[in-house]
Amino acid sequence: MSTETQDTAPELRLAHPVGATVQIVVDTLFARIKSEEYPRDTRLPSERTLAAELGVARNTVREALDVLEGQEVIRRRPGAGSFVTYRSTPQAAPSPDSVAGETSPLDHLVVRGILEPEIVRLAVVNMTPRMLTALSETLSRIETVTTDIDAFIALEEQLYLQIAEGTGNALLASCYRLAIDTYRESYRTRLRRRALTPRRMQDYQKRYNTLYNAIASRDVGQAVEFIKLHLVEEQKLLLQDD
């Protein structure tokens, strides 16, 4: 097997052990990614090309790519290939504390109205089966919450962030994460807690089921239309407390 050996090759902590050859391929590809031989957002060579270059079977390369995707080092896009998502140097994000004090309720609503329809549209197109499974699991957890408002809000945020990350657009997901963090730090969250009665939580659970079904069935029109209507209802709910 013709792989380059790197004394400082990085290691990934794998949830499950893999074969020795697969591990070598994983380490080799991760070393190239970390050294930016394969920079972030670039497409990896095809499985066939990598198999020929490394002197291994294609199913070995495929298993190694499964591992890297599971570690969020790469992301597969059906029909397009495998793309690097690993970031070697964490980027500093704006502090939500500093933004929250300068953000009005109207600002929150405007930002959500801009971001969420596009996030949902891209999520319908790009979410992988694994992402949909994780989204379904979060939705199931939301459905078990009937009175715990803090738990409901935390799971709701997780659901939205999973959808944002499912777009495959790291910048868009980062912007949305900042919007959620800012919202959490603002006084609007306190108003929301007052409005989240058990009956309203049940209503939200039904809405999120509808959204999930639209995403899972790859129905862009239904998903986008739903989120727009949902935003209108959210705006009415929030503004009635002003």
Provide structural commentary.
The chain is 65% helix and 3% strand. Mean pLDDT is 83; it is low at 2-10. A hairpin with a 3-residue loop joins strand 1 and strand 2 (81-84). Strands 1-2 form a two-stranded antiparallel ribbon. The longest helix has 22 residues, at 105-126. Helix 6 runs antiparallel to helix 7. It folds into two domains: 20-84, Arc Repressor Mutant, subunit A, CATH 1.10.10; 99-240, Four Helix Bundle (Hemerythrin (Met), subunit A), CATH 1.20.120. The protein contains eleven helices and two strands, in the order αααββαααααααα. The protein has helices at 20-34, 47-54, 58-70, 96-100, 105-126, 129-143, 149-165, 170-185, 188-195, 198-216, 220-239, and strands at residues 74-77, 81-84. The chain has 242 residues and is mainly alpha-helical. The N and C termini lie far apart (67 Å).
Question: Short summary of the structure?
Answer:
With 242 residues, the chain is mainly alpha-helical. Helix content is 65%, strand content 3%.
> Separation of termini?
67 Å
Helix/strand order, N-terminal first:
HHHEEHHHHHHHH
Q: What is the residue-mean pLDDT, rounded to a whole number? A: 83
Instruction: Determine Rg (CA atoms, Å).
Output: 21 Å
Largest sheet: 2 strands, antiparallel
- Give the proportion of residues in helices: 55-70%
**CATH architecture tag of the largest domain:** Up-down Bundle
Detail the poorly predicted runs: 2-10
The figure for the number of domains is 2
